[in-house]
Amino acid sequence: MELTYGLSTLLAIAFVAAVAPIVVGLVPGLHLPQVVVFLVGGALIGPEVLDWGDPATVEPFVNLGLGFLFLLAGYELDFRLLLAAPGRLAVIGWAASLALALGVVGVLAATGFVRAFVPVSLALTTTALGIVLPILRENAMLTGAFGTNVVAAGAVGELAPIVAIAIFLSANGQFIGLASLVAVALVALLLSYAPRLLRGRRVRSIMLAGEHSTTQTTLRWTILLLLFLLVIAADFGLDIVLGAFLAGGVLRRWAPGDTEQLEVKLDAIGYGFFIPIFFVAAGMSLDLRSIADAPARVLVFFVLLLVVRGLPALVVYRRSLVRRERVEMTLLTATALPLLVALTHIGLANGTMLRENAAALVGAGVLSVIVFPAAGLAVRRRGEPASAAPAASPPSDPSTIGEAP
């Protein structure tokens, strides 16, 4: 019975994923990212509306979807970028966001609006790089100074909160959390050097010979790497987002053979199946009743995401980007969701976060995904010369989550 219900839930999710590009195509003037349709569709088929399924019955698929989202984000990031000027500016920007968050949440805690000081403060400093990257890629925004700066800012907006979660919100204490973080990072570092042992040996030749055959050797080893680091991170009490992000960084270092084809395969598996499951399930899991009971809280956190995470970009990048690009950076870096889900889960599990705030934070994250990237694209299009518009955006791939035709 449970298996049948899980399959029914997957069927409902697959329906939303299949319909999403059609919905986007029918309203091209809105430039709607598919992730918006995933979230709204998930809310409609979820337990609180149509009740076509229960996301808890497909939790392994949801975790794999989250894993693929951050695997591809980690693969896209060149970690050397974090040591260059864009990385330094990204750290300054995140530090400014953290200072703002601590001050704002301190005031909210004093008034009784917030109880979970640390989770809420960290939530306001996050950036959903995994969501933003496909949108940037589809709209040719990853090149030049803007592209490198927004990727670096997004990476720090994901990595820094993950590190803080591991240290300050570990169920086993801060020292154990820090030790676990170091241990998982060392495992990832060792894995990044492991393929050197295969150079010139028969195992490597076998892997390369089978990468495009029915054995799909490189793809299978990539999935093994992802699952291994997800399990390692979970066993050490860390969020699986960290394991997935590190898996992407390791894969970028050792991916053998035809890397372009490997990227195509990963995009097909991730964006074609697993990643839509994560976003639709996130929509299904929305606590709509708590949001309806306290809609003002959603608006408060939505505005705070923009103020705390986004506005520092206007100052930090004043010498690196023109004003229009700084506005785009403000909107894109304020986009948040996956880590908000993780932080609210931790806050509810340890009893420090009010249920209405947990729902409001996730609702604000969903709203940020719906509003901020679309607004950023609108600012980009308004600032582009009309003659340059066709060349700036490659044809949309309907299988891509960040489609904006």
From TrEMBL:
<feature type="region of interest" description="Disordered">
    <location>
        <begin position="385"/>
        <end position="405"/>
    </location>
</feature>
<comment type="similarity">
    <text>Belongs to the monovalent cation:proton antiporter 2 (CPA2) transporter (TC 2.A.37) family.</text>
</comment>
<feature type="transmembrane region" description="Helical">
    <location>
        <begin position="329"/>
        <end position="348"/>
    </location>
</feature>
<feature type="transmembrane region" description="Helical">
    <location>
        <begin position="116"/>
        <end position="136"/>
    </location>
</feature>
<feature type="transmembrane region" description="Helical">
    <location>
        <begin position="219"/>
        <end position="248"/>
    </location>
</feature>
<keyword id="KW-0812">Transmembrane</keyword>
<feature type="transmembrane region" description="Helical">
    <location>
        <begin position="360"/>
        <end position="379"/>
    </location>
</feature>
<keyword id="KW-0813">Transport</keyword>
<feature type="transmembrane region" description="Helical">
    <location>
        <begin position="89"/>
        <end position="110"/>
    </location>
</feature>
<feature type="transmembrane region" description="Helical">
    <location>
        <begin position="268"/>
        <end position="286"/>
    </location>
</feature>
<dbReference type="Pfam" id="PF00999">
    <property type="entry name" value="Na_H_Exchanger"/>
</dbReference>
<feature type="transmembrane region" description="Helical">
    <location>
        <begin position="175"/>
        <end position="198"/>
    </location>
</feature>
<dbReference type="InterPro" id="IPR038770">
    <property type="entry name" value="Na+/solute_symporter_sf"/>
</dbReference>
<keyword id="KW-1133">Transmembrane helix</keyword>
<feature type="transmembrane region" description="Helical">
    <location>
        <begin position="148"/>
        <end position="169"/>
    </location>
</feature>
<feature type="transmembrane region" description="Helical">
    <location>
        <begin position="298"/>
        <end position="317"/>
    </location>
</feature>
<dbReference type="GO" id="GO:0016020">
    <property type="term" value="C:membrane"/>
</dbReference>
<dbReference type="GO" id="GO:0015297">
    <property type="term" value="F:antiporter activity"/>
</dbReference>
<keyword id="KW-0472">Membrane</keyword>
<dbReference type="GO" id="GO:1902600">
    <property type="term" value="P:proton transmembrane transport"/>
</dbReference>
<protein>
    <submittedName>
        <fullName>Cation:proton antiporter</fullName>
    </submittedName>
</protein>
<feature type="transmembrane region" description="Helical">
    <location>
        <begin position="7"/>
        <end position="30"/>
    </location>
</feature>
<keyword id="KW-0050">Antiport</keyword>
<dbReference type="InterPro" id="IPR006153">
    <property type="entry name" value="Cation/H_exchanger_TM"/>
</dbReference>
<feature type="domain" description="Cation/H+ exchanger transmembrane">
    <location>
        <begin position="16"/>
        <end position="373"/>
    </location>
</feature>
<keyword id="KW-0406">Ion transport</keyword>
<feature type="transmembrane region" description="Helical">
    <location>
        <begin position="60"/>
        <end position="77"/>
    </location>
</feature>
